[in-house]
């Protein structure tokens, strides 16, 4: 059976959609398997990136439980899911059933049920380190490249790192060696952690590291 991309985004909760859409944006950015323009689509990577960023902002705003912000988040969710579903068939066609190419898109793959469906969770990245960036208010992050990871997610908190709800998404990265976190407040204390994201989903978090930004 020809592999197909899973587009059941409506089944994801809001946080799951935020993570998955970020993985897809990271996977498609500078992806040589799917260069633009995505003809005959009228949708561009910029459109997708904007929709994902709008949803991410609306998602965090809606955590206040303000009903108008929740409504706006839901509207952004509909737009984002619509784009993700619209562009998926193009990637299936452009890949010519090449599973390795499809996997780079960031979408989950639907495989023949006769195949081995073993679900391997990615381990936490190794050699996680942080250092002051070249400019004030920045932190540079380094890890060893994680086999099986198509991208990485960085989270940050200034609160108790042992409380899961305190962590917030900071950025996505497709590289393990040049991860740059900007727009931090000098003199403030931050905790950071990072995990890999592969075709089977998100991996395990690193132990958090702490730094006072200069």
Please, could you describe this protein's structure?
The protein is of the alpha+beta class and about 210 residues long. The protein folds into 2 domains: about 110 residues; about 80 residues, Immunoglobulin-like, CATH 2.60.40.10. About 30% of the residues lie in helices and about 20% in strands. The strands form 3 sheets. Strands 5, 6, 8, 9 and 10 form a 5-stranded antiparallel β-sheet that branches. A 3-stranded antiparallel β-sheet has the order 3-4-7, with no helix packed on it. It has a two-stranded antiparallel ribbon with strand order 1-2. Strand 8 and strand 9 form a beta hairpin. Helix 1 runs antiparallel to helix 2 and helix 2 packs antiparallel against helix 3. The longest helix has 29 residues. The radius of gyration is 18 Å and the shape is globular. The chain starts with a strand and ends with a strand.
Write the layout of secondary structure elements.
Layout: E1 4-5, H1 14-28, H2 45-61, H3 67-95, H4 99-103, E2 109-110, E3 129-132, E4 139-142, E5 151-157, E6 168-173, E7 179-181, E8 189-198, E9 201-202, E10 209-212
Antiparallel strand pairs: 1-2, 3-4, 4-7, 5-6, 5-8, 8-9, 8-10
Helix pairs in contact: 1-2, 2-3
């Amino acid at each position: 059976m020809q592999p197909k991309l899973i587009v059941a985004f409506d089944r994801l909760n809001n946080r799951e959609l935020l993570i998955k859409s970020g993985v897809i944006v990271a996977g498609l950015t500078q992806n040589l398997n799917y260069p633009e323009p995505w003809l005959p689509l009228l949708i561009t990577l910029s459109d997708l990136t904007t929709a994902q960023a709008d949803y991410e902002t609306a998602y965090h705003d809606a955590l206040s439980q303000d009903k108008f912000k929740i409504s706006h988040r839901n509207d952004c969710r509909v737009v984002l899911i619509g784009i993700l579903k619209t562009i998926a068939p193009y990637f299936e066609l452009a890949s010519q059933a090449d599973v390795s190419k499809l996997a780079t898109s960031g979408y989950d793959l639907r495989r023949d049920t006769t195949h081995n469906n073993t679900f391997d969770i990615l381990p936490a990245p190794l050699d996680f380190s942080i250092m002051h960036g070249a400019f004030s208010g920045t932190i540079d992050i380094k890890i060893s490249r994680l086999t099986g990871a198509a991208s990485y997610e960085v989270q940050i908190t200034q609160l108790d790192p042992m409380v899961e709800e305190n962590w917030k998404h900071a950025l996505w990265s497709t590289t393990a060696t040049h991860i740059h976190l900007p727009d931090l407040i000098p003199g403030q204390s931050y905790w950071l952690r990072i995990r890999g994201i592969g075709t089977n989903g998100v991996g395990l978090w690193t132990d958090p590291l702490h730094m006072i930004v200069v």
